[in-house]
Amino acid sequence: MKRIVFLGLLFFIFNFHFGQDAGIMVEKVEPPFWWVGMTNPNLQILVYGNEVSLATIEIDYPGVEVRNIRKVENPNYLFIDLVVSEDALPGEFPIRFKVGNKLLAPYSFELKVRKPGSSSRKGFSTSDAVYLLMPDRFASR
User: Fold this and answer.
1) Residue 65 burial (CB count, 10 A)
2) What is the pTM of this model?
3) pLDDT band with cut points at 50, 70 and 90 for residue 82
4) Buried b (16+ CB within 10 A) or exposed e, 73-108
């Protein structure tokens, strides 16, 4: 009986440790989507995941070009610089992560349609900032 319990425990530990894919895994992408027709065609995507900077990136979508891939000191972060041209159509496309010949699960990135009139909105400016001054802080007692 002890032998069966020991072998069962050993099998469980072996499967838990070696059965998991402890390799590269994409956990988060920021921004998770973008819009077509933006004034600035440049877009930088932050990818976070276990050793994601070891992967190579492939994007094949009309109107979207990979300009640069930036790796930082931390291997869990990767920055992808994209150019989304004016003729890019809305839709979803995969960002493929490859290590050697192994294709990891792709991330589905979406380009959305901008709402009508959204380009005429005023952005953040100095009128949005409020400077608070506390004169009593400097008062002598």
Assistant:
1) 14
2) 0.69
3) very high
4) eeeeebebebebeeebeeeebebbbeeeeeebeebe
